[in-house]
Amino acid sequence: MHLEDAVVTGHEDFQGGYRLLTVVSPCIAPEVKPGQFVHLKIPRLNEALLRRPFSVYQAQDDRLAILYKNIGRGTDAMTTLRSGETISLIGPLGHPFPPRQEGTYPVLVAGGYGMAALYLVAKTTALPGLAFFGGAAEADILCVREFESMGWDVRVTTEDGSLGRRGVVTDALDAWLAERRADKKPEFYGCGPNGMLRAISDRAQAGGWTAWVSMDRNMGCGVGACLTCVQKVQASDGSDWTWARVCREGPVFECRQIVWEEEA
């Protein structure tokens, strides 16, 4: 983990209200693993005492990219960043997605921003597999070309039918599971709304497969001190549940670790 002043090298519109922020980060970028995040100090927003967590979209050599959407005061302040300015980052943070297990077939399942968070999983997986992307409408579907250029079979679902199959992302996933060859034992990697992650977990446990899910919780410090991002998980002895810090023990958990609550 490093505290670093990163220099902005690019900041541009990406798609559907999303923006791509690229920085030079010689300390953090080379150490980033898939699923990790950075804690960013919001520029020109003095009343924002707490940093904000952002998944790392791309990391290569000394460059790091964040894909974000302008949805509030913090991200609105971020849109004013220009090339040559510096931003304060802490990272890389969090427990990453593990490498694919031998003999499994990688299946990515993403909703909304989760597509960007799974990019490094796709890039570092030697065997391209299937990527299921879901969103409310076409504008919510990100990075299809980027994943396809790495050899992934991308299947899109939108709730309004404006792109790909009409429905929710698990509709397309269920269709594939029903027709998949027996030699394709899936290993799931999921990022998106909790309801979607729980649905992936249910399918993985029913089939006896492994599913890695990236949990989203509001974070304060990002380094495990403030305990605002806790998640119920199975206790190590299996007898009861305990709390885990999403910023430290997560954000990635194997689905059997999670204690899913009814409102999820």
Provide a compact summary of the structure:
It contains six helices and 16 strands.
Written account of the structure:
With 264 residues, this protein is α/β, with parallel strands linked by helices. The protein folds into two domains: 2-93, Elongation Factor Tu (Ef-tu), domain 3 (Beta Barrel); 105-257, Nucleotide-binding domain of ferredoxin-NADP reductase (FNR) module (Rossmann fold, 3-Layer(aba) Sandwich), CATH 3.40.50.80. 17% of the residues lie in helices and 35% in strands. It is built from six helices and 16 strands. The protein has helices at 73-78, 114-117, 119-124, 144-148, 169-179, 194-207, and strands at 2-15, 18-24, 37-40, 52-55, 58-60, 63-69, 86-93, 105-111, 130-135, 153-158, 165-166, 186-191, 210-214, 230-234, 241-245, 252-254. It has a seven-stranded antiparallel beta sheet, with no helix packed on it. Strand 5 (58-60) and strand 6 form a beta hairpin. It is globular. The two termini are 31 Å apart.
